[in-house]
Automatic annotation (TrEMBL):
Protein name listed in UniProt: Peptidase family S41
SUPFAM superfamilies membership: ClpP/crotonase
Domain Tail specific protease, chain residue ranges per copy: 272-442
Signal peptide limits: 1-21
Organism: Pedobacter suwonensis
Any one biological process term the GO annotation gives: proteolysis
Keywords (A to Z) from UniProt: Signal
Highest taxon, organism lineage: Bacteria
Keyword Chloroplast tagged: no
Keyword Transport: no
Pfam families assigned: Peptidase_S41
Entry GO MF terms: serine-type peptidase activity
Length: 465
């Protein structure tokens, strides 16, 4: 990193960070977690069997010994994270109760003139995040942390409240591959960790949906959206764009339930053009899941007929049966099974995957996926692959699909979240976790424009209606 002498002199008046650590009985929490998983987790008897049971028991004994010496909630959380990783299931976790950390704010010397001089100096290599930024209620300057390469501090320039004064640290950022880890300081003397990433040249969005817009340095010819405009934009909102009259790109970054009506509306608006469309590319890269209902309106353009699906296994335990009753699942199960415990029940009816209708077009459907396509995003891919008109492209998905219908039970000092059901009773023979769904046509991450790559592929195959 280029030395920044003549840039600024930072005087860090670091005040103590007072973490209000909470004591916990980590050994008891782990014992309850083991019992809760063994009694209720739908995949437990699949992942722990006669071949590895002794190893599993030894693993538990080791962690129970470790837990005996842990009294702090944060250390217990780390141990439980490591322990639960044994099951290789991203839908399974234990959350230890903890008190929010109270902190004292960090004050720096603010030197806007020096920062602006640095931005104007073309001889200095600068990160694109450096500059003066604005979010709702705050203006802050993001500058390099002189003590740590790849680290940045966001210092308050002005705020619409009395808590944050000029020069106070609002964010500490660490540059990663395509995003920044972020410690965000809030008005209630707490700090939360998250990530933030560019959504355009002059805009940022964090995991909590907070938007930032760049004020300086910018080009006078570039139009930067206002905060009001940015708040109306949602990078996870589905979109449909036409490449030409024959090819469309449907972007589905999330299956969150709130986007179901958006998908319905997009299909309704474009249904006449879709009825003559040759190529439809559905981009589900980064789709971490949500609800299968969200993409229902897309199914007529993917499927060509109804198909029999594997039977779901609903694991019967006292806790799970309560959930199945609440969800209306219990009444659909085979009555001869529902009184049993410690086994999987199935529905009486044969499950079918079908659509409201089956459109003649598009001729070719491409699903573009990656390693962050998970949960309902993966379910979408799996359903799409039943159709002969669908080809999948990209890289393997996340491998987070075999267990679902999550339930949460309270422990003494923690909560356990686990899947109550399995995607198919044909596990482990037809397991997808943790390897993911492989693409029909792999596309390397080094390909800069996968959409054009897919369109070229369709031109070469020349599949006709």
């Amino acid at each position: 990193m280029m030395r920044l002498h003549k840039f600024l002199l930072l005087i860090n008046l670091f005040l103590s960070v007072n973490a209000v650590a909470k004591n916990c009985n980590c050994s008891e929490i782990l014992q309850q977690s083991i019992k809760g998983i063994e009694n209720n987790y739908a995949l437990f008897k699949i992942k722990v069997n006669a071949n590895n049971y002794k190893g599993y028991q030894s693993f538990n004994r080791l962690y129970l010994i470790k837990a005996q010496s842990i009294e702090q909630s944060d250390a217990c959380q780390k141990l439980l994270n490591d322990w639960v990783a044994y099951f290789k299931d991203k839908h399974l976790w234990v959350t230890v109760d903890s008190e929010v950390e109270k902190i004292d704010y960090i004050q720096h010397r603010l030197a806007l003139k020096s920062y602006r001089k640095r931005w104007r100096d073309n001889k200095i290599t600068k990160d694109s995040i450096e500059g003066l930024w604005e979010m709702e209620g705050y203006r802050a300057v993001i500058i390099p942390d002189l003590n740590n390469y790849g680290h940045f501090n966001a210092l308050i320039v002005s705020a619409d409240n009395d808590t944050f004064k000029p020069g106070m640290l609002k964010m500490h950022l660490i540059k990663r591959d395509g995003f920044y880890d972020m410690d965000f300081y809030r008005r209630d003397s707490t700090m939360v960790s998250s990530t933030i990433r560019f959504t355009s040249k002059y805009t940022l969005l964090d995991d909590d949906g907070l938007s930032w817009r760049k004020l300086e340095p910018t080009l006078p010819t570039d139009r930067i959206p206002t905060l009001a405009e940015m708040n109306r934009l949602d990078p996870y909102k589905p979109t449909l764009k036409w490449v030409d009259e024959n090819s469309a790109i449907f972007t589905l970054p999330s299956c969150a339930p709130r986007f179901g009506p958006v998908v319905d509306s997009l299909i309704d608006v474009h249904k006449d053009k879709l009825a003559q469309c040759l190529n439809l590319i559905i981009d589900v890269k980064g789709n971490g899941g949500g609800s299968d209902r969200t993409y229902r309106a897309l199914l007529p353009y993917l499927l060509i007929k109804a198909s029999v699906q594997p039977k779901v296994g609903y694991y019967l335990s006292d806790e799970n049966v309560k959930l199945f009753r609440e969800l209306g699942i219990l009444k659909k199960l085979n009555p001869s099974d529902t009184s049993k415990r410690g086994t999987w029940a199935t529905t009486l009816e044969t499950p079918y995957l079908s659509a409201a209708h089956y459109a003649k077009f598009p001729v070719n459907v491409a699903i573009l996926m990656d390693s962050k396509t998970a949960s309902s995003g993966e379910t979408f891919v799996l359903k799409a692959k039943t159709s002969q008109r669908v080809t999948t492209f990209g890289t393997a998905t996340a491998g987070c699909i075999d267990g679902y219908n999550g339930n949460v039970i309270r422990l003494n000092g923690a909560s356990l979240r686990y899947p109550t059901s399995i995607r198919t009773i044909n596990l482990p023979q037809e397991a997808i976790d943790p390897f993911g769904i492989l693409p029909d046509i792999p596309i390397s991450g080094t390909v800069s424009d996968p959409i054009s790559w897919i369109l070229d592929y369709f031109k070469q195959t020349e599949r006709n209606p």
